[in-house]
Amino acid sequence: MKLMEEKIRDCGKVLPGNILKVGNFLNQQLDTAFLSEVGKEIARLYKDSGVTKVITIEASGIAIATLAALYLGVPAVIVKKHSSANQSKDVYSAEISSFTHGNVYTAVVAKEYLNANDKVLIVDDFLAVGNAIKGLQSMLAQAGAELVGCAIAIEKGFQGGGDLLRKEGIRVESLAIVDSMTDTDITFRA
Amino acid sequence: MKLMEEKIRDCGKVLPGNILKVGNFLNQQLDTAFLSEVGKEIARLYKDSGVTKVITIEASGIAIATLAALYLGVPAVIVKKHSSANQSKDVYSAEISSFTHGNVYTAVVAKEYLNANDKVLIVDDFLAVGNAIKGLQSMLAQAGAELVGCAIAIEKGFQGGGDLLRKEGIRVESLAIVDSMTDTDITFRA
Are A109 and A132 in contact (CB under 8 A)? Predict the structure, then answer.
């Protein structure tokens, strides 16, 4: 999706620690018209895959997951980062270590929202080493649900998570793959 | 919005502690077609108010805020619950105590996403005592931005937050106002 590469070049900013800041359109201030196009593109890529649910871990992928699910005509399931007062005890869970935040959290989803008949599309804003997706894979396996594939706004190709998943035979569609970045330049995978 | 009342009657569940569980359509498994209608209704209510930005605190209001902003043709700003590695130090912030989670957190938004020219619509899934909105009001005041009003999916009328805001002259549009609830019945404000 050339549109995503152009948006990153126009609006993204590289920060120390291999952080690509896209807060002004993707995950802090949301360019909703642009994200709607992102959602439509994800829906186009997976429209013939029989997806029954889109899943994402809160919070920065929620907007894209919602729009992709809307255009696919399916619900979006939001995995929570910890149990809360109105969370059923009857959950699937996984321990996930966050590259961005440098911590470990428990991802949980109520069992009632995933089942063995589900064909699930994982949606997220970023894919780096792939820890979040590994955690979601584990939760889908607990539910007996099928993983149809992943749709990612921005893959950090140089961190290898996406290619590892592809080697395992998982379909990973990233709207932009950053192969390298410096303070002054971002190189996208051809 | 009768549609929201019907949806709550059909799909909602009352849990001990005055908790209305709507996880199967509003904030855990998202009924995206329904939430799109919610977004359209919010946009209809505020279409002539000159809104420049929609704002919400992560995470459960993000889907509705995104869709409302999309249909209003403006960006959505997501206020974070704590500072993170890719968060600028240059932020507006407020301390907010959460009724649902029984804790206190710091809400933060980068100064670059709010300014004195903004006319801001607050969107959230729930309004109970109104603490989150008070925190957002404080952050808008820090930015010199104008609060146009609030759009809420479900207001717990019996907790009084919405009526206090209305008494202050703030426009509060709730798509359903629950005036009382028991294990077996939910009464909506006429």
Answer: no
pLDDT attached to residue A85: 46
Residue range B2-188 in CATH 3.40.50.2020: yes
Residues of chain B positioned with their CB less than 8 A from the CB of A17: 85
**Pairwise CB contact (< 8 Å): B70 & A24:** no
State whether A23 and B62 contact (CB < 8 Å).
Answer: no
Model pTM score: 0.95
Alpha carbon distance, N-terminus to C-terminus of chain B: 11
- At A44-93, the pLDDT tens digits run 999 999 999 999 999 999 999 999 999 999 999 999 987 554 555 799 99
**Between B35, B85, B100, which is nearest A19 by CB?**
B85
Q: How many CB pairs under 8 A join A and B?
A: 121
Burial A118-141 (b: 16+ CB within 10 A, else e): bbbbbbbbbbbebbbbebbbbbbe
Contacts of A160 (CB under 8 A, 6+ apart): A129, A130
Please state, in angstroms and rounded to a whole number, the distance separating the CA atoms of residues B111 and A59.
Answer: 20
Cross-chain residue pair A30–B112, CB shorter than 8 Å: no
Q: At what angle do helices A32-46 and B62-72 cross, to 10 degrees?
A: 110
Residue in B67, B74, B101 closest to A85 by CB: B101
Residues in A closer than 8 angstroms to B63, CB to CB, are: 62-63, 66, 76, 78
What share of chain B in percent tops pLDDT 70?
96
Radius of gyration of chain B (CA): 16
- Residues of A in CB contact (< 8 Å) with B are 15, 17, 19, 21, 23-24, 27-33, 35-36, 53, 58-60, 62-63, 66-67, 69-70, 73-78, 80, 84-86, 100-102, 109-110, 112-113
Q: How far is B97 from chain A (nearest CA, A)?
A: 14
pLDDT-above-90 percentage for chain A = 85
pLDDT at A101: 73
